[in-house]
Each structure stands twice: as C-alpha cells, then as structure tokens.
Amino acid sequence: MPRELSRLQLIERSITKKYRKELWSPFITAIRQYELLSPGDRVAVCISGGKDSMLMAKLFQMLQRVSDFPFELVFLSMDPGYNEENRRKVAENAALLGIPLTVFETDIFSVTASAGGSPCYLCARMRRGHLYSKARELGCNKIALGHHFNDVIETTLMSLLYGSQLQGMIPKLKSKNFPGMELIRPLYRVREADILAWKRYNGLEFIQCACRFTENCDSCAEDEDGGSKRLAVKKLIARLKAEDPVVDISIFNAVHNVFLDTFPGYKSDGAEHSFLERYGETRKDTTEREEPAVMED
Fold it and tell me: Do the beta carbons of residue 149 and residue 191 sit within 8 Å?
C-alpha cells in the first residue's frame, strides 16, 4: 500500500509535477539565463509573507537539494511593524512550508506613518536598506526578492505612461550603498497568475499587503493594488490580452530586445546621451535599419 504523502510533500510535488512548466522550469531558466547563482553564494531569501516570496523560498530550498554546486540560504523575514495576526500568519505558513525563518524587527511602519509624502516609496527604500544591512551582517553576499514576470512588464509600462521614461527592471543588480552585495530576482520569468493558481490549488492563504495604510482597506485584494497606477496598468494589460493573448510576452521580450540606435536619447551610468553623438558615424545599424510604419493624418 503506497505511503500517504504529507501536506508539505504534496505542496512540493505540485511544484515539480502539476506546475513544473509554470513555476519550476521558469525559475530554473532565470537562474541559468541571468546567472543569478554562483558556487559558494550565501543568499538571503527575503520573505515578506506574501505568495511571491513564500513560493520563492520554497523553490530555492528545493533547488538547493538537487543543485550540482554548493550554495547557502538564509530565509530572512523582516517585521516592519505587522499586526499580531499577520506576524502569526507568516510564522504559520513558514512552518507549513518547512521554511526556517530568521526574523528581525524594524520600525518602518511607524516611521513612514509619520513621515508624510509618499509612504509607499519611503517604505520600499527603507525595507531594502534594512534587508541589505541584515543580510550582510549574516554573511550573505546576495539578497533575493520576489519580483515576478508581471512586475517586470508592469514596471516598464508604468515608467512609460506615468514617468515619461523607458525604464525596465533587470534580473540582478549590484548595490550602490552596500559594496559587494547583489540583488537577484529569481521569479523574473514566473507569471503571477501561475503563482495564484499554485496557491489556490494547495489551499494556501498568505498575507496580502500588510501595510498599516491598506490592511483595513476592503479593495486591497492580493492580486490588486488598491486603485493605484499599478492596478491601472494591470487592467490595461488584461484588456490588451483579451484581444491578443501573447501581448504580455511581447512586452517582456521587448525589454530583452532594445534597439538603442533608434532612440533619440538615453541614459547610461547616470549620464545622458544623444543620438547626435554617433550620428556622423557611418554604420550599417544606424543608416539602414527600417523604421516602423507610422500612421499619418
């Protein structure tokens, strides 16, 4: 008689079996394609308690078991001032998923609540700084965040539509304020819809936006952003996908396939550049490339 699997084993099995194509494979592809891991790395897997970071932690843990080179993991959970219910939920889900948490506390919510201005921006900046600092204290050389495929394309469109710039979100970057530290995004190729499907399939419930500004907001659903510009972009992409099911893939591929010579200006390493700097050069890629058709009045 076959042995009955525990709930943890069933959850792990769903990642490598039912959702292998949607979760495990794109996670591994991102690790390899973007060279996110190296032998001897000590990675602080940053866990907020939401669906994305919890799945990322599980994926990393499972990868460590089968990896052909050694690396270390620290499952780092920062409490920025969660209420008791959310603190308990994070701990319970970590125990359920077999994730050994290293928890540290900060007063980020208290600081941002009294700072005025844009609390979300300040909160995000402070969170990252605290995570880098604690990770370095624990001997880590990398921090891993749970940004996924949808974050990539939404950020790109938000910068275009609301920020008057074309700015993407790269899979990894070196810290400017913490030399020797690096940020990696291993869920870069994983779609949010597939994370939600995995969560629902396993009957899992994670904390949503646990910020004090939104925790009592009925409209702040886990897969929505409380009427923000990001939600507007989510809805725009959904409308476009209704007409063209692969439009999100096109946006994602576009950030990997930028024709810099077709832009009148760009920034690199903080310096502004103009196409005029190279306009006088005789180069095939700047003189013979066909421009896209434009409708005229």
Answer: yes
Structural domain includes residue 243: no
Residues 117-167 have pLDDT tens digits of 666 667 778 888 889 999 999 999 999 999 999 999 999 999 999 999 999
CA separation for the pair 167, 255 (Å, rounded): 9
Q: Is residue 46 part of a domain?
A: yes
What range defines the domain where residue 18 resides?
Answer: 7-218
The stretch 176-193 carries a mean pLDDT of 97
Number of compact structural domains in the chain: 1
Of 35, 13, 10, whose CA–CA distance to 24 is shortest?
13
Give the integer Cα–Cα distance in Å for 205 and 218. 17
Q: What is the CATH number of the domain that holds 194?
A: 3.40.50.620
Percentage of the chain beyond pLDDT 70 is 84
Helix residue ranges, H only, the chain:
7-16, 25-33, 51-66, 84-97, 108-115, 119-137, 149-162, 192-201, 229-243, 247-254, 276-279, 284-287
Residues 6+ apart with CB under 8 A from 147: 52, 169, 185, 187, 188
CA–CA dist 97, 282 (Å, integer)? 59
Residue ranges of alpha helices (H) inside 98-184 are 108-115, 119-137, 149-162
SS3 183: strand
With respect to residue 283, please indicate whether it lies within any of the assigned structural domains: no
> Could you tell me if residue 100 is inside a domain?
yes
- Per-residue pLDDT for 222 more than 70? no
Q: What b-and-e string marks burial along 110-127, b requiring 16 or more CB atoms within 10 Å of the CB?
A: eebeeeeeebeeebeebb
Structure confidence at residue 118 (pLDDT): 62
pLDDT above 90 for 50: yes
- The pair phi, psi for residue 62, each rounded to 5°, is -70, -35
Residue 196: what pLDDT? 98
Q: How far apart are the first and last CA of the chain?
A: 74
For residue 207, give both structure tokens: 């904390």
